[in-house]
Amino acid sequence: IVLIMLALPSLQILYMMDEINEPDLTLKAIGHQWYWTYEYTDFKDLTFDSYMTPTTDLPLGHFRLLEVDHRVIIPMESPIRIIVTANDVLHAWAIPALGVKTDAIPGRLNQTSFITTRPGVFYGQCSEICGANHSYMPIVVESTPLTHFEHWSSL
């Protein structure tokens, strides 16, 4: 009886923590070997692949093995829902500075949410051992003011 009295409220709290109410933006991340595909589901035809920038093409001052050719741009101070899946093997979409880590599993959609409170660039990587080159799947999220995001999304 004691275990049931502890379990029922705990299950309700777990469900409520995972529920996302009215996000301002939904982003879908699809893991491939060895890159990510991003889809902004609230916009028509806003999809791109994000590959790691080779060291030979890296601009001065950027991080080696962490920079990508296409960054994910999000508006700051807006609830963001991210839906994560994979196309081939297990991956994990992880950005430690935002407190986000979600497994990407083929055939399954996992979701989480986050809010950035300041503009900036946040770096992450695939944190699942998905093969020999899993460390070459960086993730870069750039948080910008809403006006900059609107201008970027209309291009």
Explain what the structure shows.
By secondary structure, the protein is an alpha+beta fold. The protein has one domain (24-154): Cupredoxins -  blue copper proteins (Immunoglobulin-like, Sandwich), CATH 2.60.40.420. Helix content is 16%, strand content 37%. The protein contains 2 helices and 10 strands. It has helices at residues 2-18, 146-153; strands at residues 25-32, 35-40, 47-50, 72-75, 80-86, 91-95, 100-104, 110-114, 120-126, 138-144. The strands form 2 sheets. Strands 3-2-1-5-8 form a 5-stranded mixed sheet, with no helix packed on it. It has a 5-stranded mixed sheet with strand order 4-10-9-6-7, covered by helices on one side. The longest helix is centred in the N-terminal third of the chain and has 17 residues, at 2-18. The radius of gyration is 17 Å and the shape is globular. The chain starts with a helix and ends with a helix. The mean pLDDT is 91.
